[in-house]
User: Which sequence fits this backbone?
């Protein structure tokens, strides 16, 4: 359920979100929704920039962030948000954090390394081409030849050293940890190539491979950069989703003024105000106010529970009807969420043990190639080639088998696959997530918010009754009233509306006084647990509206398609038995369990794992977070709580459960493409390595073979982008 | 041959200039907001500087 909060109803103070620079001037970063065009951009910057105390407003259309700088210490962020709201762009304070900035630096370093490698490859090649021309009998005097080789080295070698740094560092880290990743053979290959090429240049030898070393790094950096971009984009998109969802807590100051603070700044004893439609920020004791709470994301139960003074309510519950004043009983890190967060952490550690496809390939590739190179050197020397010639051939083996194709094979496939999923509204958090998803054979669904829409919908609406109650419903912020208003569409709003916490709204429709709310509010005995609203004109008959959490429209079809794909399906829900059975029957799921606690969900996933089955968990609630983290792969809808989104590998937005099928299909295709690319690389090496051993490889052949094989795997990866989904 | 002695460093120098130019564009934030910069040319009174 997306969290909206209405700033017109007494905007709380947002100054806790301001960032101060050294001189004390404040700035604010906001995530603005709906700004797309030049008109929006101009309007936002002009209006916000004209506010008193604002020195500059800069909108970034690409990321959707607005940076507002204030003059001196006087800053009024609430006014900026209210202005944006009036213009029609809802905005949320955004706290980018330091991790994002570090990530950005890394991205810049990779791009710069890529640029340097590109420059080096082109310019070293410029001096290599005349030497290659010599191979076909054209004349090139020894002096000119030496001149070309020297220049090739002077330009190529420094570029190779700079552009190779990311690989050298990663290889060193991996070696110190006692393992060998793909960067180890790359680094050894590049360094050896440079050393041998220099010695050949000094000795006026035949071959120098400076251009090969740099272009190898250039191709590998493309793969590295694609992989980095995939993670960076997923990270920022995930941060945006969460910023929209958790705008902090409203703390009531000693002076009675409301301040909106980041969750991390709430301390025990703070007095909090929670309006209808907001989530309880931390565990708290109700001081005053009456309301109903929706615990769906906490426990999976769909029936709301009542909250009144003296009661304890848990972080993550959604406040449905009245304004609640709470006393914070725990900090955000210590709230009920924390116990689950620890389970999540334990699960995430087991996930980090997963060995990626490329690393598996490297584990085979590294010893084979190095053995081949060593054999070439030893064998060549033994057969009377002389140590220098034998060494050159060994280096040629290293160069020609160097894994540009391998380094590009997986990232290129994964970036095209996740771009395709991104267009379908599915966010892939990492390449490893796609690999794990392709292996799943059993899918566990949560019910509330996953199989169902997770928000109330009107059951059997009678259009005439809906039209009668709609004017009052439009005036209320209550989720049920909103659902009713959504059913009715646009129209007039009632006059003289007053909202009564925990009861309902009262107002005047066309001269007649009317009430919308609980049974007691319209003067009837309170009936039961069912989610309902009553409406009545003064002294007239009462109309009942029933709401329920509907199944997603394509839930049954999705389950059917998943089964057709050979996956088994099961439901684990914290909700009561009747509701779970009904949902499972409609969807055609035979295995279901109701009233499952969060720990039991995780235990069930562990049990399946112990049977050797690879589980995909799809869940949104806090009660699913531990299971999400333990499952082989995990998906969460964009409406899920922060903990669940963090624990999931993929996040899908939109109302369609079919995203799960799309994700599985694309992940399987991506794996097939990656394996094809590996197969091609193996084939290529089978031809190239013996050729290099026998001395048929010269710098020209190396350049052609390397770029050719990289081109083939990249084109094969790009087929992913065009291949249509099967749905 | 002499002409090559002169042309070779020149062409490498030109490449270096291009590399430095790219480094400068990266540093001055020209890739931070491609969509915004495309939209900005349509606004009459907007500043035409990239965000830093």
Assistant:
């Amino acid at each position: 359920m997306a969290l909206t909060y209405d700033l017109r109803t007494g905007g709380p103070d947002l100054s806790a979100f301001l960032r101060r620079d050294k001189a004390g001037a404040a700035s604010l970063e906001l995530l603005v929704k709906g700004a797309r065009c030049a008109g929006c951009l101009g309007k936002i910057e002009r209006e916000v920039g004209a506010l008193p105390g604002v020195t500059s407003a800069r909108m970034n259309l690409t990321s959707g962030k607005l940076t507002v700088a204030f003059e001196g210490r006087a800053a009024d962020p609430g006014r900026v948000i209210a202005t944006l709201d009036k213009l029609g762009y809802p905005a949320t304070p955004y706290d980018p954090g330091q991790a994002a900035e570090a990530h950005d630096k890394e991205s810049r370093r990779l791009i710069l390394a890529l640029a340097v490698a590109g420059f080096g490859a082109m310019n070293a090649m410029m001096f290599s081409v005349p030497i290659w021309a010599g191979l076909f009998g054209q004349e090139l005097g020894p002096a000119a030849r030496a001149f070309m080789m020297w220049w090739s080295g002077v330009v190529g070698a420094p570029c190779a050293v700079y552009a190779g740094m990311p690989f050298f560092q990663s290889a060193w880290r991996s070696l110190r940890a006692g393992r060998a990743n793909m960067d180890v053979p790359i680094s050894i290959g590049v360094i050896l190539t440079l050393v041998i090429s220099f010695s050949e240049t000094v000795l006026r030898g035949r071959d120098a491979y400076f251009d090969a070393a740099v272009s190898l790094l250039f191709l590998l950096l493309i793969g590295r950069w694609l992989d980095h971009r995939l993670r960076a984009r997923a990270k920022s998109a995930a941060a945006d989703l969460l910023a929209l969802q958790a705008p902090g807590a409203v703390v009531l100051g000693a002076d009675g003024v409301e301040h909106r603070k980041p969750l991390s700044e709430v301390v025990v004893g703070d007095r909090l105000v929670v309006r209808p439609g907001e989530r309880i920020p931390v565990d708290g004791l109700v001081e005053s106010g009456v309301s109903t709470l929706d615990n769906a994301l906490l426990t999976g139960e769909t029936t709301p529970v009542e909250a009144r003074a003296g009661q304890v309510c848990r972080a993550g519950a959604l406040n449905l009807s009245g304004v609640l004043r709470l006393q914070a009983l725990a900090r955000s890190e210590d709230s009920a969420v924390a116990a689950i967060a620890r389970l999540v952490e334990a699960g995430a550690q087991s996930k980090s043990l997963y060995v990626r496809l490329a690393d598996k390939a490297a584990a085979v590739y590294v010893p084979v190639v190095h053995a081949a190179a060593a054999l070439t050197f030893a064998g060549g020397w033994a057969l009377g080639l002389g140590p220098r010639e034998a060494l050159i051939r060994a280096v040629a083996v290293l160069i020609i088998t160097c894994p540009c194709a391998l380094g590009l094979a997986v990232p290129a496939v994964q970036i095209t696959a996740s771009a395709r999923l991104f267009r379908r509204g599915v966010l892939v958090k990492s390449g490893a997530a796609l690999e794990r998803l392709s292996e799943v054979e059993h899918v566990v669904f949560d019910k509330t918010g996953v199989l169902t829409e997770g928000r109330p919908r009107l059951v059997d609406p009678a259009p005439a009754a809906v039209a009668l109650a709609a004017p009052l419903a439009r005036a209320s912020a209550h989720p049920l009233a909103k659902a009713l208003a959504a059913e009715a569409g646009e129209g007039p709003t009632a006059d003289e509306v007053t909202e009564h916490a925990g009861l309902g709204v009262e107002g005047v429709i066309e001269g007649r006084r009317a009430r919308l709310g609980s049974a007691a509010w319209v003067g009837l005995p309170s009936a039961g647990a069912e989610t309902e609203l009553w409406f009545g004109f003064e002294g007239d008959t009462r109309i009942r509206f029933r709401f329920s959490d509907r199944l997603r429209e394509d839930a049954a079809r999705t389950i059917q398609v998943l089964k057709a794909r050979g996956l088994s399906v099961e439901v684990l829900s914290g909700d009561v038995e009747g509701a779970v059975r009904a949902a499972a029957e409609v969807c055609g799921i035979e295995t279901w369990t109701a009233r499952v606690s969060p720990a039991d969900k995780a235990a069930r996933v562990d049990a399946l794992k112990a049977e050797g089955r690879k589980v995909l968990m799809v869940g949104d609630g806090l009660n699913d977070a531990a299971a999400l983290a333990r499952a082989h792969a995990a998906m969460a809808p964009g409406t899920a709580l922060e903990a669940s989104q963090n624990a999931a590998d993929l996040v899908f937005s939109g109302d369609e459960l079919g995203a799960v099928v799309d994700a599985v299909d694309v992940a399987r295709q991506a794996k097939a493409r990656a394996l094809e690319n590996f197969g091609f690389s193996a084939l290529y090496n089978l031809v190239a390595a013996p050729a290099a051993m026998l001395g048929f490889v010269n710098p020209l052949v190396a350049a052609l073979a390397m770029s050719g094989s990289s081109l083939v795997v990249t084109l094969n990866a790009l087929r992913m982008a065009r291949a249509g989904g099967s749905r | 041959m002499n002409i090559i002695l002169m042309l070779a460093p020149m062409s490498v120098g030109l490449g270096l200039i291009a590399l430095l130019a790219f480094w400068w564009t990266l540093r001055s934030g020209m890739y931070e907001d491609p969509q915004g910069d495309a939209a900005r040319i349509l606004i009459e009174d907007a500043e035409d500087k990239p965000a830093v």
Summary: The interface with chain A takes residues 1, 4-5, 8, 11-12, 15-16, 18-19, 22-23, 26, 32-36, 39-40, 42-43, 46, 51 of chain B (CB under 8 Å).
